[in-house]
Amino acid sequence: MESKKSQLFPGILQWKIGEKKITVLNDGHFQIGSEYLTHVDGDAATILGAALRPEIPTLITNVYVIESDSHAPVLIDTGVGDKLAPAIKGNFRESLQHIGLKPEDIGYVLLTHLHGDHFYGLLDKDGSKNFPNAKVWVSDVEKKFWFESENLNDQDSQNAEDAKGYLAYYDILSGTGEILPGINEIPLPGHTPGQTGFLLETGDEKVLFCADVLGIPAVQAKHPEVGFATDVDYELGVKTRKDLLRKAADEKLLLAGAHFEFPCITYIKEENSSYTLISKQWFGQV
Prior knowledge:
The protein is an alpha+beta fold. The chain contains 7 helices and 16 strands.
């Protein structure tokens, strides 16, 4: 008997937030070495196990789509794309068709920061634009760091070269404050100098797309002092993380991170000087 080829079902979850629709598109996942977790009190495998996560750290990668009558569809980041394929390949572009969008429908791409797993999806494997009608926003601080710094290490120098090449194909927007109706940029420095969150305010609800402030959320919410080897400024990154977690807990602010686990949109609860993620209740209707 001929075996059936397994079918990959896209990871998609849609939310109605005020007057806007948010779609979470899972781009995939990839493992990183335990050495990527820094400032761990004890053994990394132990802290991961206590969080009920694999002993080898695994990053989930998501792309968010915002749809509204007041602007063209917006992407928050673009995932890992094809550059690292086949070892690591982004999947979210194939998922767009399942929500009725074509690549040419995307009007804006808002980049939280310029690490490759956030911008590689801008181009396809042949170097052509994946989103031919989109304009790209990235903070001036972020561009200055990656494009003007002179003392980057080898890995960061390669990342900077890639970022320049990928962004060169697009019209680049900049500026501060409100980028699009109901969407404001919020500086979240540390992981990179210009890392930016995007605060969506609609109706009575607020969602902050918080980039890589939490890379392994189950660990870093409970232990905010745990960092990443790719943090440009570890101490500032910890301050930003603690400040954001405290703010989200106090204000019942919803967070949505690039590496959050489904359903991805969560509240934060403070417990004995640490924090727990509480998923927003999802009802399955948009």
